[in-house]
Amino acid sequence: MQIDQERFRQILASRSPGGKKKPGISKILYRVPPLLWGRAAAQSTVEFLAGIPALEDLTPKELSQLSQVMHERSFGDGEIIYDQGTPSTALYVIRNGSVEMFRKADGAEAVLATLAPNELFGEISLLIDEGARFAGARSRGPTDLLALSRPDFETLMVRSPIASVKFLRGIGRIVAEKFRLLMETMEAGAPE
Question: Lower CB count within 10 Å: N or C terminus of the chain?
Answer without folding.
Answer: C
